[in-house]
User: Fold this.
Amino acid sequence: MTLSFFIPNKNEIVASLTLFFLIFTFYSNGFLISRKKEFNINLVIGWSFFSFICILFGAVLKIKLNYIINIYTISSILLIVKNFKYFKFLAIKKYLFLIPVFFLFLNTKSHGWDSYAYILDRTIYLFNNDQFPIHQFRSNYPFSSSLIHYYSNFYSNNFTENIPALFDLILVVGSIEIFSKLSFGNYKTSYSYLTLIFSFLVLFNPMVMNVYSFSSYEDFHVAYILLVIFYFNYQNGFDLKKLLTNKKIYFFLLSLLSVSKAPGFVHSGSILLSNLLVYLFFNNFDYKILKKYIILCVLSFSQFFLWQYHILINDIFIGNNFKGFRFDVFENILVNYYNQFLVKKLLLFSNFFFMFSSLFICWIFKDKKIIKMFVFVSIPVFIWNLFLLIFFIFIQGDGLAKEFHNFFRFLSHFSLIFTSMYLIVFFKYIKFTHIKIIKFKTLLLLILYIAIIMNLKYFRRDLSDEYKILYSIKKEGLQKIMKNKEGYNNLENIIINFYKNNQNILIK
Assistant:
């Protein structure tokens, strides 16, 4: 490993700048819709709007994506110029200390089996064809995350791998912002000082960061969207009536969630169900509320319905076949869960905790908002666990099903919410005294940088020994590597095939 692995090329720099521009368009378009000074809510709204127009015009109406992208860019620039005075409040000063961290990711290569097996290929198809695939492997999977990668490479006309990791890092910043606000509310002084503390809480939290973070996998994106939805519910006291007064915002949030991954509709549906049940638990039934709620449900699945229409009219293969009830998988549920528990103790403990201890926690605190919070979260967590069990027993491939393959990864969708709930309960019931940690800010910053450098392969797994094939391709060239192909393991062969089939994106 040399310094060259951290120095981005021209294409990677251009793609990074394009990504930051796209994020700003998300924020600005989101603000024009919500009129709220909330970075995270506006980012998700803008992202949802971008995804919606791409699916509607690109997948349903069959308009080439390059036309959609150009029109979107021009329109966004005009709107930003016209409404620029409204964006002066965008506060980024307190996150400038993370700029060196961004530089570490500018030259990132992807990692993970699925990244090289099919995720990156899906994005490359968009890049090469300016349209959604219909006969490619897993063409049925939604493209809400791939579209960000596609847009970031669109104007450079060169495909780079660094965008997914950089985008994840932006979502990390957003998560820090939400954790800070949930913990301290409008306590501005402490809030500005303690963002640094929450950086440790996100970046070094095994519940949040795992082997699939800073890669092409969408799971962290799902976790972030769920966190934003949770945050929006918390702001509105988990009150359906208040949420319905902001249904324009809420349907954009839920709509994106429904196409965040193939089973994203399960998350959206369970949250909507949870909203209704929480309302019925704490309020008298109101037909007017029910009518508005039904409208919200229909709107929230708008992107999902459009994407399913695209799948239907193009006869796209949806993937795994229904395999019926498999008793051998069912009878080993507890054993498989325990084996996964040994792998990811903290995350699975949190899952267990919220599934079986919510009522106990509510009884202890006797706080209506806290009770609503636990009820609101427990229902989607329970439904998601039930969905995963059904998926493993009836659908997933035999070998993977028996191992509960990637169960912890699927469960990580709730990791940010679990963390935020711990923080809310802690800071609500532990009296907070104002600590002026600004005296220690330089020291904490130094510790953060040292910790990141010492754990660099934790964040940039493309630098680990498992991915040394990437260095070999860069150093020796693809052709030489292919001559010794038989000596590589399965992952290495998948990476080699990926670069072989996409000669235009060879490591430079």
Observations:
- The chain has a mean pLDDT of 85.
